[in-house]
Each structure stands twice: as C-alpha cells, then as structure tokens.
Amino acid sequence: MSESARLYRGSLAPEEAVARLNAAARQVNATETVDLAAATGRYLYADLVAGHDLPATNNAAVDGYAVDAAFLAANPGHAFPVIGRAAAGHPFAGTAASGEAVRTFTGAVMPQGTDAVAMHEFCELEADGTHVTIGSKLTPGANNRPAGENLRKGETIIPAGTRLDAADLGIAAASGMATLEVRRQLKVGLVSMGDELVAPGDEPAHGQLHDSNRPMLADMLRGDGHEVEDFGIIADDEAALSSCFQTALSRCDAVLSSGGASDGDEDHTQAAMRNTNIKPAFWRLSIKPGRPMSAGLMDGKPVMCLPGNPVAAFVCYRLAAAPVLRHMAGGVARPVLKLRVRCGFAHRKSAGRAEYLRVRIIAGADGEPEMVLHGRKGAGVLSSLTGADGLIEIPVYNEGVEAGDYLSFIPFRETGL
Ligand code: AMP
Ligand code: MG
Predict the structure, then answer these.
(1) What are the b/e assignments for 195-229, b being 16+ CB within 10 Å?
(2) Whose CA is nearest to atom 16 of ligand 1?
(3) Nearest bound ligand to CA 194?
(4) How far is CA 238 from CA 30, 212, 253, 259, 309, in A?
(5) The domain containing residue 94 runs over which residues?
C-alpha cells in the first residue's frame, strides 16, 4: 500500500458520508401553506396536480382569420364573409358556417365552426372590410394551440420535494393555485470555532483574523432554503463547545460548525461530540481540501463539523453537508452536476483523495470550452472562490492532470444565463 493510500485509509467519499447521515437524519414533516409570492426556495410537500387543462380550449396561435380548413381546400380563392371577431378574453359568441371567416387574434378561443387560422399576412381583406380571401393553404388545426397543450388535467406538474423556483411559481399560478403547501423550513445552528476569530467589524488583535466562514456558510444555508440560527464564535474550549452543541441541538434540526475539526490539541469538536452524546458517523473525507470533516448524530439531528480553512469549509458544505440538509428539508436528491470539460492546465497530486480546484471556463485556442485555474491554490485561499465558475474534480486515484485531459467540471455559479 502506498504512503498516501495508507494515510487516507478509512476516510469517506462525500457521497458515502451523505448516505450515512441521510440514513439516520430526521426529515422535517411539518408543513405550512404559503402564498405563491413567499414560496420561492421552499420545498414542495406533495405532488402538485393540474386541476384543469391549460389552455382550457383550443385557441389561436396567430393573428388572422379563422375558417374551416376543409372548406378552404375545396374552394381556393373563395371570398369569405367576415362575420365577427374573436380576441383574447373576448370569445366569438356565434358559430361560423363553412365558407365564413372570423377575425381572430392570438389567444382567442377558436370560434365554433372553425378549425384553422390563416395568418393575416396571407389574407386579403376587401376594401369595405366585409370579405377576406386567403392566399395560403391550411390543414385542420393549423395555427391553433390545442386544449391541454400546456397542462393536462390530472398530470403532475411539480413533483413533491421540488425546491420551488420562478418557473414553478408560474406554472402553479397557471394551474389556478394561489398558495402552496411546503415543508417547514429546516433550522440550522451555525457556529465558528477558534480563539483567533473576531466577528466582522471588530478590530483583530495581533494574531487574530475575521471570521469569514460564518457569513459565507450562513448565506449558503439561506441560499439552500434553510433558516439559520447564529451561535457566533466559540473559543477553542471543549466545555464551551459542548455546551454550544447542546443548546444548538435543543433548538435546531441540525448543527453546522467550522474550525477545530481535526485531531490537534486545539481541535475540540470530536471531544465536544463525545461529551454531548452525539453518536459519531464519520471522521475524515477522502477529498482535498476538506479532509478533516467529521459528523455525528443525536436523535436524528446531524452535527456536521467542517474544517476551518474557508475553501475547505465551502467544498465540504457543498459536497457533504448541503445534500444532507436538503434531504432533511424534504428535497429530492439532486446529483452533483458534473460536466466533462477539457482541462487547460497541468497539476500533480497524490492518489487517495479527490482534489477540487477552483476554475474558470474560457474559450480555448480552438474555441472549445476549457477549464483554467482561478486564483492561488490552497485550502485557505478564499480569493480563489470569488469570481470562479466552479470546481474541477480530479478523481481520487489520479496522480494529477495534464492539459488536454477531460475531467469533471462542477459549476457553482448561480447564473448560467
Ligand atoms: P482549524 O480547522 O480550526 O484548524 O482552522 C484551519 C485554518 O482555518 C486556520 O488557519 C484558521 O485560522 C482558519 N479558520 C478557522 N475558522 C475560520 C473562520 N471561521 N474564518 C476564517 N478562517 C478560519
Ligand atoms: Mg482552529
């Protein structure tokens, strides 16, 4: 066994860590009914089923003249008397006979007796506006949007466990819903640990630094739809941390800490978990950055201890903590999106850990997308995250990458559009 394989033996891949915690973590079961305007980012409790067809009737897809297509086919050049008007929200009340036309606008219910709309560009209206001739051929159903094209009554339009977004709200409104039943938000206790940390805004003394993990992790938690209870900064002190874990567990569904996750003299998360009767689930992930992550559970509530190095905390949150919280919040599992993209740089690593480096996507010399390293390497180099498009994943057994290799790119920028 190689040196690195020996060193990383017993550490878990993030997916295994997630599976282990998900098997024991308790899901939120309570629900609440919220207005559509407040439903963004919430997790839908039950399948949303269409209550009616949408559109409810066949309707016009263009502006023009609605006629009977078979009549037109048999009588090309016929001058159709224009017997009425149909617009969106203003259906034509009568029935057109074969050989009659109705002036029709996009979105109007198809007038009875007609089955196709001739686009007005292909129509010639007589000077007095009473008759129209149609210069195009029409098949039955031409330029119609059929009833139920968008939604069919009874079909599932948003599956349970969906994290609701703008398109979901649109379709919920289209199907007649003004409110939705969603899961209660998951409440996550967040704490930073370290004698060296001061809150943003406070003046650091010699050897101190600002706590950057808490604002970053709080934002990622809220961005994932969870409520955050902030437990501030705890000193590197076993008793203080044990009591913080205890309080956080009594008030929250899950606890997320950063710092002190390793096994050094100044790392107290493991001891605090033992003191608090938190059952260990794992310690160490086979990833870089992020190896020292540990986690345990009490009464179905996970305590996830991320390493203090900010990039490690970010990567561990995304790969190992976020999927557990999503599961607990009632969200359907969403596999990490990994795209095969050409790598534009060389990098050496040891086997035994998957490595995640921050990258940007640029157009390579031949125009093909290519990953380039972003910022300086290092688990603590937070500036490598700002402005990055995502992570490159260098698999666990690789000893490096060469320019030209195709590897997984994991985007983390919110907007691709
Ligand atoms: P630790 O995991 O406690 O050994 O910390 C590893 C490194 O991350 C140390 O250099 C810490 O100072 C730094 N660190 C720990 N927590 C934070 C935090 N909340 N914000 C910024 N840096 C941190
Ligand atoms: Mg520390």
Answers:
(1) ebbeeeeeeeeeeeebbbbbebbbebbeebbbebb
(2) 308
(3) 2
(4) 34, 22, 22, 13, 20
(5) 59-145
pLDDT of residue 57 exceeding 70, the answer is yes
The number of folded domains in the chain is 4
The Cα angle at residue 206 between residues 204 and 211, in degrees rounded to 5: 35
Residues 338-361 have pLDDT tens digits of: 999 999 999 999 999 999 999 999
pLDDT of residue 264: 87
Both tokens of 267, joined, read 């790392």
Within-domain flag for 34:
no
For residue 354, which amino acid is it?
Answer: A
**What global pTM score does this model have?**
0.93
Domain of 371, CATH number, reads 2.40.340.10
Residue 21 burial class via C-beta count within 10 angstroms: exposed 0-12, middle 13-18, buried 19 and up? buried
Q: Which protein residues are within 6 Å of ligand 1, measured from CB?
A: 192, 194, 196-197, 209, 211-214, 258-262, 307-310, 380
Cα 107 to Cα 171: distance, rounded to the nearest angstrom: 18
Clarify whether residues 237 and 205 are in a common domain.
yes
